[in-house]
Amino acid sequence: IEQEYIIDNKNDIAAIIITSFYAVKEIIKSNMSRDITIFAVGKFSCKKLKDLGYKDIRVAKNNSAQSLLKLIIESHDNLKKASIYYFRGQDITIDFKKELSKRSLEITDVICYKAAAKLNFSPKLLDFLKKNKFDEVLIYSRNSAKIFINLVERHNLIEYFKYSKILCLSLDIAKIIKYKENYFSNIDIFSNSKILNDFYD
Fold first, then answer.
1. Taking a C-beta distance cutoff of 8 angstroms, is the pair 188, 168 a contact?
2. Is 89 helix (H, G, I), strand (E, B) or coil?
């Protein structure tokens, strides 16, 4: 669910933090300068920005919020007295504003979307699963991992996903899936997928 946010003084923003694909839409809509520094949790979430000509995109090594925080801290000296905007959802894993404020960095939260959990798989998907099985399932966030597990349990679909490859954006997300190893036998991360890497590079 997108949420409206008016950004004043766009030209004064020195850097942006994004931790999901949904936040990218807000940056595009706000028409930020293509020279702005962007800190992103993964290259998959910011591919659209790269395609649109944003030049200074710095991606976390491990596709996780924790590694992104470390990357920003390492850039601390260049960000002092800079105006940094954190585009995020209502629910977050790490409070970047709180953590970076400890290092005297000026962070403005922009809550641009709210995740609404699906309560059921659609009838169309359930009908599809009666005749087919998914080779791969892509999980982009911790919240998505929890929702996926809940839906699989709710609809008693464990056997349909037992041998599907569950590909997670980061190790942190994969850990959530691994709590249910009796459900899923093939769990990996995006960076280990040659197809995904070839597609996004």
1. yes
2. strand
Phi, psi of 194 (to 5 degrees): -65, -40
Name the 3-class secondary structure at 56: strand
Close Cβ partners of 63 (under 8 Å, ≥ 6 residues apart): 41, 42, 44, 169, 170, 171, 189, 190, 191
Amino acid at 179: Y
Q: How far apart are CA 41 and CA 62, in angstroms?
A: 8
As a whole number of angstroms, the distance between CA 169 and CA 167 comes to 7
Has this prediction a pTM greater than 0.90?
no
In tens, the pLDDT along 4-31 reads: 555 655 657 888 998 877 788 778 887 7
Q: Is 152 helix (H, G, I), strand (E, B) or coil?
A: helix
Planar angle of CA 70, 57, 64, nearest 5 degrees: 40
Using an 8 Å Cβ cutoff, are 60 and 42 in contact? yes
